[in-house]
Design a protein that fits this description.
The complex is a heterodimer of chains A (321) and B (440).
Chain A (H helix, E strand, L loop, with lengths): L1 H19 L8 H36 L2 E2 L7 E2 L3 H8 L1 H33 L5 H14 L3 H10 L5 H8 L14 H11 L2 H13 L2 H10 L3 H29 L3 H6 L13 H11 L3 H29 L5
Antiparallel strand pairs in A: 1-2
Chain B lengths: L11 H25 L8 E8 L2 H17 L3 E8 L1 H13 L6 E4 L3 H6 L21 H4 L3 E2 L2 E2 L2 E2 L2 E8 L1 H7 L11 H13 L6 E3 L5 H12 L14 H17 L5 H8 L14 E7 L3 H8 L4 E3 L14 E3 L2 E4 L6 H13 L1 H7 L9 H7 L5 H13 L17 H13 L5 H16 L1
Parallel strand pairs in B: 1-2, 1-3, 8-9
Antiparallel strand pairs in B: 3-12, 4-5, 6-12, 7-9, 7-10, 7-11
Helix pairs in contact in B: 2-13, 6-7, 9-17, 12-13, 16-17
The chains are: A mainly alpha (321), B alpha/beta (440).
C-alpha cells in the first residue's frame, strides 16, 4: 500500500516543475520580425564558427575517409578500402577492447561516487560551498596535461603510491608501466573527476521537494527506502543526463592516455585508446584517410550508444509528467 | 520539458546572414595573409626555422642565428623549437596545411619520408647559395635519394655504447676491451655490475631499439633492417635471438624489470635516462648525446664500440647524419633559406656556437677550425668518431617511406616480450610482418 501512495506522489511530483515552465508568448508582427533579424545577426558569428570549424571539417573528414591521404600529398579515392581494412586491423580491435573496458568500468564508478557524495553533501554539511568547490576542482583539471604528468609520477615505480605502500611494507610496482594495471590508473583518474556530475546531482537533489520525505517519515519509511523509492526515481532524469554525457566523454578520452603512455598507448598497447589510435594512424604514420575512417566509425559507435541510451531511458527515466 | 523554440531556428534568413558573415570573415582572413607577407616595399625577409632539442641547444642555436642576422641584416629568423616527441606531429600538420617552415630540421628516415612525397626542395636549385663540396660525401648521402639532394647533414653521429666508469669501479668490474668484446661479454658484465651495486643500479639499460636491432642484424647476417630497394631485410630468427637474449637479461636482473623499462621508454630526454641519472653501467645511445649524458650524470662517461663488432659477418656500426636541414618546397624564400643552411653547416662562426651539438661537423674545414675550441666532452665524441670511422659499415641504407614507424613497433613488441605476453619467436615474426605492412 505504501508503494502505491509513493507512486502517486511521484506522479504528482513532476507537476509543479512542469507547470512553472510556461512557454513565454511567441512574439508576432513587425516588431517580432525585426527582433528575429537582430537575433540572427547576433547569432551569425556562432553560425560561422560552426560552419567553418565544425561542419566543414566534419564533411572534409567524411570525404577523406574514402581516400588514401598521406597528409603530405593529395588524397586519392580508394572507395571502401579503409573500412575493409578496419575488419582485419588487430590493433584497432585491441583499442576497441581497451576503450570499451574503460567506458564500462569508469563511468558507473564515477557516477556512483558522484551520487554518493552529492547525497551526503545534500544532507546539509557545514561549509557546503567549500566542499562543492573542492570536489569540483578535479573535473576542471582532470583532462589537463599537467594532471596526466602528475598521474604518471604518482603511479610510477618511484611514485607516491609505491612510497605509501612501502610504509606498510609492500613492495609496489610501476603501475602506469605494467600492462595489467596501466588502464586501471586511467580509470582511477576518470573516477577522480567525479565533481562535475556531482554538482549536477546536487542541483537535482535540491529540486526534490521535502514534503515527500516528510510524508515518507509519517509512513515510517527508513533511510534506505526513502533513497530508493523517492530520491532515485525523482533523480532519474539527472542520472540519465550524466550517464549520456559521461559515456560520450569517456569514449573521447585522449589527453590522459596520450600523456601517461607518452603517446604510444603502451605498455604493450594496454592503454591504446581508440582516439589515441586514430592519432597514431593520422599523424604517426601519415594515414589520414584511414584515420578519418576510424573517426567516423567512432562517431557511429557513440551515436549508437546514445541512441540505445535514449531508447532504454523510456523504461527507467521518470520525467514526472 | 519540451521546448517550443527549437523548431523555428534554422530558417532562410539565418542562412543568408551566416553566408554574409562568413564572406566577411573569409575576406578578412585573406587580408591578413597579404599583410603578413614580405612585400612591404623593402627586401626584408623573415625565415621560419624549425628544430627540436633542449634548452641548451636553444641557447647556442640562438647565438648562431644572431651571428647570421648580423651577417645578413635583411634576413631575420623566427625559430620554432619543439620537443622531439611532438616535433614530427606538428611538422606533418603544418605541411598538410601548406604553411611549413622554410628551413626544416629532419633526421633518420624523415628526409626520405618527406622528400619522396614532394615536400622538400631539390637543393641543386640553390647550389649557388649552398655549396656542398666541403661536406663529407658519406654524410651527404644521408639526404640523397631518387637522384636528388634533399637535405644537408648537420653533422656526423654514430650509435654506440656509453659506459659509466664510476659504476664499473663501484662494482669492481674492469672496462672491457671494446675492440674484441662479444655479446656474451656484454651479458656477463651487465650481470656482474647489477649484482655488485645497490638495487637501483643496473649493469645495462634494456638495449632494445630499432637502431640496435639494425646493428645486431648486420653483424649476424650482413643486412640491417632494410634492403637497398626498400624491403624488410631483418630475418625473424635474428630478432628472435635478440629478444631471447634481452629477455634473459631482464629476468636475471642484468637489465631493469619489464615495468621499469616500459616506464623509461616514454622519456627521450637524456637527463631522465638511467645513464643520465648515474644508475646504469652501460646504455646504447647516439654519440652526440654524450655531452648531455655527462652533464646530467656528473660522471666521466666514455664511448665504446658495440659488442660483437669484430666477431660478426660484417660490422654493425655506421656513421649517420645526426640530423639534416632541408628547405620546404613551397618556401617563398628558397635562396635565403639556403643561405641560412649554408651559414649553419659551412661557416666556422656558426660552428663556434653549435660545435658538435648536432653531431661532429661534416664539413672538414669547419671541423678543423673548431677542433681547438672543442670542450672536453665534444672532443671525446670527435675522437671516438675518428677512431671508428675506418671500421664502420660503409653501407648506409636509409629506411624507406613508412619506416619511421619501426621505432614504435619495436618498442611495442619489446614490451610484449619483456612482460611475457608473447614469445621471442612470435615477436620476431611479428616484427617482420608489422614493419613490412608499415612500409608497403
Amino acid at each position: 500500500m505504501a508503494e502505491t501512495t509513493q507512486h502517486a506522489d511521484t506522479e504528482r511530483a513532476g507537476e509543479p516543475g512542469t507547470g512553472q515552465r510556461k512557454s513565454p508568448p511567441r512574439p508576432r508582427g513587425q516588431l517580432a520580425k525585426r527582433e528575429g533579424r537582430a537575433a540572427y545577426f547576433f547569432l551569425a558569428p556562432w553560425f560561422v564558427g560552426i560552419g567553418l570549424i565544425t561542419i566543414g571539417p566534419i564533411l572534409g573528414s567524411l570525404y577523406l575517409s574514402f581516400t588514401d591521404y598521406s597528409l603530405l600529398s593529395s588524397p586519392e579515392w580508394i572507395g571502401l578500402d579503409n573500412f575493409q581494412r578496419m575488419l582485419e586491423d588487430e590493433r584497432l580491435h585491441n583499442s576497441l577492447r581497451v576503450t570499451f573496458t574503460y567506458v564500462f568500468v569508469s563511468v558507473p564508478l564515477q557516477l556512483a561516487l558522484a551520487l554518493a557524495l552529492a547525497f551526503f553533501l545534500d544532507k546539509g554539511v557545514r561549509g557546503l560551498s567549500l566542499y562543492r568547490s573542492v570536489y569540483y576542482l578535479p573535473s576542471l583539471l582532470g583532462s589537463s596535461v599537467a594532471i596526466a604528468i602528475l598521474w604518471r609520477q604518482i603511479f610510477g615505480t618511484e611514485g607516491l603510491v609505491n612510497q605509501l605502500l612501502a610504509l606498510v611494507g609492500i613492495q609496489g610496482q610501476g603501475w602506469v608501466s605494467h600492462p595489467d594495471h596501466a588502464l586501471s590508473t586511467l580509470v582511477v583518474l576518470n573516477v577522480w573527476t567525479f565533481g562535475s556530475p556531482m554538482v549536477i546531482f546536487l542541483a537535482g537533489l535540491r529540486q526534490i521537494p521535502t514534503m515527500y520525505y516528510e510524508a515518507a517519515d509519517v509512513d515510517g519509511a527508513n533511510g534506505f527506502t526513502k533513497f530508493w523509492r523517492i530520491t532515485i526515481p525523482l533523480l532519474t532524469p539527472i542520472i540519465f543526463f550524466n550517464l549520456v554525457l559521461q559515456i560520450i566523454g569517456a569514449f573521447q578520452t585522449f589527453t590522459q592516455a596520450f600523456i601517461v603512455s607518452g603517446g604510444s598507448g603502451g605498455p604493450a598497447d594496454s592503454t591504446l585508446f581508440y582516439t589515441l589510435y586514430i592519432y597514431q594512424r593520422g599523424f604517426g604514420s601519415f594515414e589520414m584517410g584511414y584515420a578519418s575512417a576510424l573517426a567516423w566509425f567512432l562517431l557511429v559507435v557513440i551515436a549508437g550508444f546514445t541512441a540505445v541510451n535514449f531508447w532504454a531511458a523510456k523504461r527507467w527515466v521518470h520525467y514526472g509528467d | 520539458m519540451s521546448n517550443r523554440y527549437g523548431n523555428n531556428l534554422l530558417r532562410g534568413r539565418t542562412a543568408v546572414a551566416a553566408v554574409f558573415v562568413a564572406t566577411l570573415a573569409l575576406s578578412a582572413c585573406g587580408g591578413d595573409d597579404a599583410s603578413t607577407g614580405t612585400e612591404a616595399g623593402t627586401d626584408e625577409v623573415t625565415l621560419r626555422f624549425s628544430w627540436w632539442g633542449n634548452d641548451e641547444r636553444a641557447r647556442i642555436t640562438q647565438e648562431a642565428l644572431d651571428a647570421f642576422e648580423a651577417e645578413y641584416p635583411h634576413i631575420s629568423v623566427d625559430t620554432e623549437p619543439l620537443d622531439f616527441d611532438g616535433y614530427f606531429d606538428r611538422l606533418a600538420t603544418s605541411v598538410a596545411a601548406g604553411n611549413a617552415p622554410d628551413v626544416i630540421t629532419l633526421g633518420g628516415a624523415y628526409p626520405r619520408e618527406y622528400g619522396d612525397r614532394g615536400v622538400l626542395l631539390d637543393l641543386s636549385t640553390v647550389a649557388e647559395q649552398l655549396p656542398t663540396d666541403q661536406i663529407d660525401e658519406a654524410a651527404l648521402s644521408n639526404g640523397f635519394f631518387s637522384d636528388v639532394q634533399y637535405s644537408i647533414p648537420t653533422g656526423v653521429n654514430t650509435y654506440a655504447m656509453v659506459v659509466n666508469p664510476e659504476v664499473f669501479d663501484a662494482a669492481g668490474v674492469p672496462l672491457p676491451d671494446d675492440t674484441s668484446w662479444t655479446w656474451d661479454d656484454f651479458i656477463d658484465i651487465a650481470q656482474e655490475i647489477s649484482e655488485n651495486t645497490p638495487d637501483d643500479t643496473y649493469g645495462a639499460v634494456d638495449p632494445t631499439s630499432a637502431d640496435v636491432m639494425d646493428l645486431y642484424s648486420r653483424q649476424h647476417t650482413g643486412a640491417g633492417l632494410y634492403t637497398e630497394d626498400g624491403e624488410v631485410a631483418i630475418a625473424a630468427e635474428t630478432a628472435r635471438d635478440w629478444w631471447t637474449m634481452t629477455k634473459q637479461m631482464s629476468e636475471s636482473g642484468a637489465t631493469p624489470s619489464a615495468s621499469l623499462t616500459a616506464e623509461l621508454a616514454g622519456q627521450a630526454a637524456p637527463e631522465q635516462t638511467l645513464m643520465g641519472r648515474g644508475l646504469a653501467g652501460m646504455q646504447f645511445d647516439w654519440s652526440n648525446q654524450l655531452t648531455a649524458l655527462r652533464g646530467a650524470s656528473g660522471a666521466d662517461l666514455q664511448m665504446l664500440r658495440a659488442p660483437g663488432e669484430s666477431h660478426g659477418v660484417a660490422p654493425g656500426m655506421w656513421l649517420q647524419a645526426s640530423q639534416s636541414y632541408a628547405i620546404y618546397a613551397e618556401s617563398d624564400h628558397p635562396e635565403e633559406a639556403a643561405l641560412l643552411i649554408d651559414f649553419l653547416v659551412n661557416n666556422a662562426e656558426a660552428a663556434a656556437f653549435i660545435k658538435a651539438d648536432r653531431g661532429i661537423p661534416a664539413n672538414g674545414e669547419v671541423l678543423e677550425a673548431i677542433t681547438p675550441e672543442l670542450d672536453e666532452d665534444t672532443a671525446a665524441q670527435a675522437d671516438f668518431i675518428a677512431a671508428v670511422s675506418d671500421e664502420v659499415n660503409p653501407d648506409l641504407i636509409i629506411g624507406p617511406t613508412g619506416s619511421t614507424e619501426t621505432r614504435l613497433i619495436v618498442e611495442r613488441l619489446n614490451d610484449e616480450v619483456l612482460f611475457d605476453r608473447i614469445s621471442p619467436e612470435e615477436a620476431g615474426e611479428r616484427l617482420v610482418r608489422e614493419v613490412t605492412s608499415a612500409i608497403e
